[in-house]
Amino acid sequence: MLEIEGKLQAELARGIEALQTVANAESLEAWKQEFLGKKSLVMQVYGSMGKLAKEERPIIGKAVNQAKAGLEAALAEKEEGIKAASQQEAFTKETLDVTLPGRKPRRGRIHPLHLTLRQIYRIFGDMGFQIYRSPEVETDDYNFTFLNMPPYHPARDMWDTFYTDKEGVVLRTHTSPGQVRVMRERAPENIRVILPGTTMRYEQLTARSEIEFIQVELLVVGKGITFADMRGTLNDFARRTFGENARTRLRPSFFPFTEPSAEMDVECFVCGGEGCGVCKGTGWLEILGCGMVHPTVLRYGGYDPEVYSGFAAGMGIDRSTLMRYHIDDIRHFRNNDIRFLEQF
Amino acid sequence: MKAPLSWLKDYIDLDGVGIEEIANLLTNVGLEVESVQLVGVEKPEGKLKNKYFGLPWDKEKFVVAEVLEVNQHPNADRLTLCELNDGTGITTVLTGAPNMFPYLGKGRLEQPIKVAYAREGALLYDGHQPGQVVTKLKKTTIRGVESRSMICSEKELGISEEHEGVIELDEDAPVGMPLVDYMGDVVYEVAILPNMARDASILGIARELSAVLGRPLRLPEGVALEKGGAIAEKVGLEVRNTELNPRFMLGMVEETQARQSPYWVRRRLSLAGMRPIDALVDATNYTMLEIGQPLHAFDYDLLRERAGGKPTIITRTAYEGEKITLLDGSEPQLDPQMELVTDTVGPLSIAGVMGGGETAVHAETRNLLIESANWNFINIRKTLSKTRINSEAAYRFSRDVHPALAETALSLCLKRVQEWGGGEVVQGVLDEYAKPYVDTVNRISAEKIAEVLGQEISLEESTRILERLGFTCWMEGRELVAKSPATRTDIETGIIGQRNLIEEIARVYGYERIAGKRLSDELPPQVGNPGLEAEERIRDIMVSIGLQDTLAYRQTSPEREARLFIGRKAPEGLAYVRLKNPITPERTVMRRSAMATMLELLEYNAKFRPGLALFELGPVFLPLADEILPHEALRLSIGMTGAWEVASWDRPQSPAMDFFDLKGVVEALLDGLHLEEVKFQAVELPCFHPGKSAEVRVGEEILGVMGELHPQVKKNFAFGQDPVLVAEFDGEALVRLSNAVFTNRPISNYPAMVEDIALIVDESVPADDLEALIWQAGGKLLVDVKLFDVYRDARLGEGKKSLAYQLTYQAFDRTLTDKDALNIRNRIVKQTKNTFGAVLRSQ
Ligand SMILES: [Zn+2]
Questions:
Q1: Which of A20, A231, B355, B521 is the 20 to 30 Å CA partner of B270?
Q2: What is the interface pTM, i.e. ipTM, of the complex?
Q3: Which of B197, B546, B632 lies nearest to residue A135, judging by beta carbons?
Q4: Could you tell me which of B644, B688, B633 has the C-alpha nearest to residue B547?
Q5: What is the pLDDT of residues B108-122, one digit of tens each?
Q6: CATH classification of A112-341 is 3.30.930.10, yes or no?
Q7: What is the CATH number of domain B753-840?
Q8: Taking the complete model, does pTM exceed 0.80, yes or no?
């Protein structure tokens, strides 16, 4: 064994031992200079290989390679350890209080009444109903006369009407004028439409009553349409809106443009029919008015009432939205208080 | 309409039908019960579906008693001490009731006064407090006299607001009987639908119950009437227009007295919501409430005095300039459309609406002339729309009353006057009834019923229902023929008459018994709705950008919209849809400007949030010269102010939004709608900062305007320091120009080359035009142009700016070389130089 072989073995052992005390990146650098730097024994021997005698070369070469590989392996392992330790330290320093609030993005929301409208569009869309819209400023003819309310008809009292300074022009008190408009446009085809829109009534503005509100009306015209069809369609709507088990009841009512006419109540979804503040103790919530289209209205629409029949229904979505979200004041919808809108 | 149960029971046997059940039956037949007042009666048990109010009268604490003697309170002039027998013994009760004073010092009364007596511990309404405040009767000492019990007023019992005196019950009231057994009651407040005006009467409501319960109706009976006779000697009658006054009847009672009616009459009137007056007036009101026919009573002697002999009643329209003072003291303007009851001297009353004061019944009336007439309801409505008079008579006549009821009512009323006021009915009645009303006759088959209802109801069952409602029915072949009752005018003929009958049958049969079916007819032709779809797309895009959807009132005022202009001076002559009857001065017209609405929304909300970004999609109303209806033009308005970033705990401050935040939103919207060839062009508009506003165009069409609010306009609102940014777009144009279908650009798999280029141009060169030219010069391989810096410096030269762009080149079929890039770049530099004199800025 050559002397140098022994020296290299000793150098490897010394290097590995020295490495054990190394604990950070700086001392590791010093160690690297000492054992694997230009002036280190291993690298000196490595560099002088060319000057060695031919027969010594393989022996010393093998020894120096062994020492170098040994040192480098130990270094790699140490480096790995130090990196892991320092990352751990960094993690500790970077640890957040994850319970602090997140940064809120600016978020836009659909207005609650538009949400309700969309839901109604979807439900009736599934049942084959299309959407038809008509003017908010209407003629007296469409708003009343064509709906079987000639001038001075007692039923005109049912709506407190806003009149305009133009004779014969009113703000529509309901979406029903659209019934005659869509009939005149589509006759003699079958009709299955919903008529959504803003309507206006002369009322005191209070937490419970509005001068402007959104109604959705339903109109079906065809051959052989019956009261039973109306009931079935409205039941399906109630179940889709208020849940599979929603119970409804139909009781007689009056609208000049339908005959027979009815009012549909749904069992209060707040108390399940037991009686509560929302249903005023009755267990029922009034959700819509409906009836078989009056022969006079069919005639005004261009349909022969001896051949065609139909049903219509109308609901105010402001009130149903109020109930749905337990909103305390109907005026919120059009005051657009951001603190209200942000909750949807 | 308020219907006391005790009164209903005069006409129908309701034994075994519960209080709650009656309410539900009424509601289910179309007479929606709005509330149920319990007068002394206990609230029914079980699950109740109706609204109840009222106070039960404990049987131990409230009894019928009799006052035997009324004595003066020793220490108080205004109080009396009543010796009272409550069935268990004699006690002394203290009262201040003025109606006990007449009995003072009379000693033992020959006819004891029957009263409603409450013992210590009774729960009753406090007579001295407004409204209904429940109080417990406690022992007190008033001026040295102990008081443990009391004689009750109607207010204390919840019968009416009357607290002037105590109740004097009818003489036959049994002493010691629990008060609730004697006169406990239930009052149903029923909503009367316009087509059920016939049920604005107790008998009408009883008839509905009779139909739905299948129990017979007992009709009240009056005196027998014969036409002509002695009455013709007393008064003449002339009807000038039988269209406006189809029937007019007169009856008369002599030597009667306007004394107090029996207590049961007074109580029924009170419970039904009418104030008792005296036997004569009460008789007319009672009969009206009973069968729905209003009546009017004249003091005959006053008529005679006016006429200076035998009076003649003339019904006619008013003469121009005629005058009348009504019972309530008002003097409405009369015009020739209005029908009057007059005599040879002048107007006596507005027909069917309200009587005049001059010939009205008064305390000394002895001879009573009773009018029972029928009036054209449309003419009554015209009168009401002008005079705005509210009366029970007008309410009924304006909803059409069957002329046959005039006769029934007169017969009943004469009987009541005689019973309650005394006197003799003058023999005979006058009756002008030129064209007797013909009741409609309809025929209907079982098939027709099933065709409308989708439910079989047999003709036998239909007949039963209709007969109970008063129709006369018979069969002709396979058809049911039904003659309408002589009490209602709402059943038409032909197909409508059939529908009327089907509704009658269905509502009594029970809507609840008609099962639902699913629609089975053929679906109609499908008609697209691109407008609504585009609107919903706009709403979704705006919300996805982060703006809040709002919903605006349509009604505003020109003054509110004028805030959009400097000095609140709107241009002259803006045409509005104006309301004839605005609800407030703040809402007199339909809005023209969505931007004005948006600024109000921003102003209102600015105090709640440091940053706002709102939008609204809705119509404005623009009157059209040649059209009856205005153009309802869809508008999209956008409003932004304050910081876009929502402040967080570690980033409390963010910059306030400016023009380019608004423009970014607009660009994102237009991009989302796939609008092509959009141009922004600087423009000066009255409400905007002159240097920070733009018009958005596609070709020649202006889509909308946007910008920062003019500082002078901003002063019209309560805004802070931050700029206020608003935009208003023509929604219809957005919808029309938007492309639901567009060509998607392919994505290249070859690497892109990116390089920067800065061009120095004159300030006057719009960035938009320069960029357009870069795109054009760049050719196909130029795939993106991004402006990343705008730089101004003296070294660039006076009036110059440098615009730095990041350009991206890419091909679809190969990797580009440096040579390709150089070619593109050279083209851009050359063309921008030629067109705008652009100079490439050296690095
Ligand atoms: Zn409830």
A1: B355
A2: 0.87
A3: B632
A4: B644
A5: 999 999 999 999 999
A6: yes
A7: 3.30.70.380
A8: yes
